[in-house]
Design brief:
Strand order of the largest sheet: 1-2-3
Strand content: 25-35%
Distance between the termini: 44 Å
Order of helices and strands: EEEHHEEEHEHHEEH
Radius of gyration: 21 Å
Largest sheet: 3 strands, antiparallel
Structural class: alpha+beta
Length: about 200
């Protein structure tokens, strides 16, 4: 069984706007270690009809999360994933495969056929037992590619001198210098960038 819990969570962030987030979380009743997963969310701005709008938002997010009760799937029940061979990848040994969601979010590069089999086997074990491996940090270097200061400057518009200074000062955790060039995990860079915006 799955339990859907709707919560009101206030936001005072200048980035996300002032208001109340109405979030619908899903937990699996048969897994005592189940962590609530955010399935649906809606932001309601403070105003004249705030309470009325909050109640309406609560109904909508609960309805959006309810399909998970029937499907009992992990992740957003509205998203469908498709598996694709990557054109030209067989020139260097074997065809590579990627999973793409239909909501146009970032896809997942899986690897060759043997990698797809290994991932499927591990996911099936998790679905059968509910047991995952040890937790990792949300900015684990393996979750995102490494960037150079030049790549970060081109993508996010932050001056390269500012980025290299942050690397030297240790503000971008995990940054390493290779020759005369700094490289760092993308997740760590984004964490520093967001922290920099708030200060």
């Amino acid at each position: 069984m799955i339990t859907v819990t709707v919560k009101r969570e206030t936001s005072n962030s200048t980035e996300s706007g002032y208001g109340v987030y109405v979030n619908a979380y899903v937990t699996w009743d048969d897994d005592p270690d189940s962590i609530p997963v955010l399935y649906a969310s809606e932001c309601v701005s403070f105003g004249k009809n705030t309470e009325k709008n909050l109640k309406a938002a609560e109904r909508r997010v609960r309805q959006n999360a309810t399909p998970a009760r029937r499907k009992n799937t992990w992740g957003n029940p509205m998203v469908t994933w498709s598996l694709h061979p990557i054109t030209g990848s067989d020139e260097e040994g074997g065809t590579m495969y990627a999973l793409l969601p239909d909501d146009l979010a970032d896809g997942l590069l899986i690897g060759e056929h043997t990698d797809v089999q290994a991932v499927a086997q591990r996911l099936n074990q998790f679905l059968e037992t509910g047991i995952a491996d040890e937790p990792i940090d949300e900015y684990d270097p393996q979750l995102a590619p490494w960037l150079s200061a030049r790549e970060a400057e081109e993508t996010w518009g932050i001056p390269r001198a500012t980025i290299t200074w942050a690397c030297r000062q240790g503000h971008i955790v995990g940054a390493e210098k290779f020759g005369n060039r700094w490289r760092f995990p993308q997740g760590r860079f984004l964490a520093w960038m967001h922290k920099r915006k708030r200060t």
